[in-house]
Design goal:
Elements: E1 2-11, E2 14-24, E3 29-34, H1 40-47, E4 55-60, E5 63-64, H2 69-76, E6 79-82, H3 94-104, H4 110-123, H5 139-151, E7 157-161, H6 169-184, E8 188-192, H7 196-202, E9 205-210, E10 213-218, H8 220-225, H9 230-239
Parallel strand pairs: 3-8, 3-9, 6-7, 7-8
Antiparallel strand pairs: 1-2, 1-4, 4-5, 9-10
Helix pairs in contact: 3-4, 3-5, 4-5, 5-6
Length: 241
């Protein structure tokens, strides 16, 4: 579905991503792991064209996504993103937040947008809060609304950029449970995360990044029990007793 080919990204003289290659296949749940500063979030932002790569390609169903706004908008209508800071519209209710993209981007009817919003808010346990505004919600509730909003676009792929890192510890579980349900439903997901148990138990593949490179790409059972790379072993020794 998505191919990343020879992708590099620099900010001035600082090379953040270095010749990255990988493919995302339908139904895969890929967790991107690595220390802070390894390039994980920049990679995800390049995949979704929030950052423009310095070189290399991002392809969707075999077609390169060029830096043309019309192509980018079309791509983003099929490949959604959930941010660590939620990015909800504060001047809209929960229901309006979930209807907005389907109405404005996909041009579905008001009735269809409403039905989608209610369906997905029920899935994430937020249907009772349809008339609430973001400032009335906890962090975990905001993130569940953000996930529902992404689902309302009927995406083929959903990208998550550290979706639990801005949450209090007691709220992390409620968001991860929603993501586990999505994974079991067959949704294709690409997730930057520090949640090792989630990556171990839910992902179908792990990409481990270090200094802008993908240094390991393996199934979780292999990565967590027999990592091949020295940096992978060092990283895991800090997280897993």
């Amino acid at each position: 579905m998505i191919e990343v080919k020879d992708l590099s990204k620099s900010f001035g003289d600082h090379e953040v991503l270095r010749k990255i290659d990988f493919e995302v296949k339908k139904g895969e749940v890929i967790c991107i792991l690595g220390s802070s500063g390894s390039g994980k979030s920049t990679l995800l932002r390049c995949v979704n064209k929030l950052e423009t790569q310095t070189s290399g390609q991002v392809l969707y169903h075999g077609k390169e996504i060029r830096n043309v706004q019309k192509e980018i908008n079309e791509f983003r209508s099929r490949v959604g993103m959930v941010f660590q800071s939620f990015n909800l519209f504060n001047n809209m209710t929960v229901l309006e937040n979930c209807m907005e993209g389907a109405r404005k981007v996909l041009h579905v009817s008001k009735e269809e947008a409403f039905d989608r919003a209610i369906k997905h808010l029920k899935e994430v346990g937020m249907a009772p809060y349809i008339n609430a505004r973001p400032e009335q919600l906890s962090g975990g509730q905001k993130q569940r609304v953000a996930i529902a909003r992404g689902l309302c676009m009927n995406p083929e792929v959903l990208l998550f950029d550290e979706p639990t890192s801005a949450l209090d510890p007691e709220m992390v579980g409620e968001v991860l449970n929603v993501m586990k349900e999505l994974a079991s439903s067959g949704l294709t997901m690409l997730i930057v995360t520090h949640e090792m148990d989630f990556a171990k138990n839910v992902s179908s593949r792990v990409l481990f990044m270090d200094k802008g490179y993908v240094v390991e790409d393996a199934p979780p059972e292999e990565f967590f029990t027999n990592p091949k790379n020295d940096r992978s072993r060092e990283f895991l020794s800090r997280f897993i007793a």
